[in-house]
Amino acid sequence: MNALVINCCPVKNGATAEIVRIVSERLSAKSICIDDYDFGFCKGCRSCHATARCVQSDDIDRIMAEFETADVIVCVSPSYWADIPGQFKAFIDRCTPWCNTHEPHASLSGSKKGYAIALRTGPSIGECQRIIGTIEHFYGHLEIECCGSLGLCSIEYKEALEPHISELEDFCDKIKSPRNYANS
Question: Which of 105, 125, 132, 138 is 20 to 30 A (C-alpha) from 144?
Answer without folding.
Answer: 125
